[in-house]
């Protein structure tokens, strides 16, 4: 080994895919000693050696563990100026932005089909009630907002995710907030003649639900813009967010999740739809798990700099 370089030996992880077996591993990589190479540098060097194995598909870990090392992790070298890492194959990848766009496109396609073609789904025409029209508008506006945020607001810390996740993630939106919700709410039982004289036709209730929904959607957008401002384009910078939702009076780590739940809660209260309730329960439960896990991670990462009074997702409670 030349004195001006340090070496990293890369071996194959224990779980080998067909792609991993096709590579000539172990591979020895050489780096200048300064600045110290990171996991990102190792991934880039592996991709350069094996163009069929892109960095986004690689999982780098220590040989004795399966826990992935972060891209910004510095490589620890022994006294001889060398190190050993294991590389695994995450499988085919897809852009996070693409996943989001596909997820949210489902309800935008399904709801108009069910709403405008009732003969196809119910075998009868439906005289849509103000309630049905409100749910229809709320769903389309919500997911159109999601698509626009994906294109112009969100910045992703990871470029890709496993390809198979697009089917799992899309099923949640396409089935629960798409087909099931649309079929339940636009059916004849919620039509104008069917709800006439009932609480579902109460204009004050509809107006109150719209007020809560608009407030929640605008608040959700505000928190997304705050998070965008924390991460300059092309970076993975992380910082403690402050401002509306994050600071007093709510003091939440994930006010965007809270406002999302509030918006769908308005749809549930306005409609009394079991399908809307199911979607809220499933998505709210998932957001709760994400929020608690990420909240704990933030406290570990930022230590005393992270506000102790903040809750994860529900103000003053959780």
TrEMBL record:
GO molecular function: oxidoreductase activity, acting on the CH-CH group of donors
Transmembrane segments: 261-290
Keyword Ribosomal protein assigned: no
Domain 3-oxo-5-alpha-steroid 4-dehydrogenase C-terminal: 160-318
Keywords: Lipid biosynthesis, Lipid metabolism, Membrane, Oxidoreductase, Transmembrane, Transmembrane helix
A Pfam family matched in the record: Steroid_dh
Subcellular location as annotated: Membrane
GO BP terms: very long-chain fatty acid biosynthetic process
GO cellular component: membrane
InterPro entries according to UniProt: 3-oxo-5_a-steroid_4-DH_C, SRD5A/TECR
Keyword Oxidoreductase: yes
Main subcellular location: membrane
Entry membrane topology: Multi-pass membrane protein
Family: Belongs to the steroid 5-alpha reductase family.
Protein name as annotated: 3-oxo-5-alpha-steroid 4-dehydrogenase-domain-containing protein
Source organism of the structure: Mycena rosella
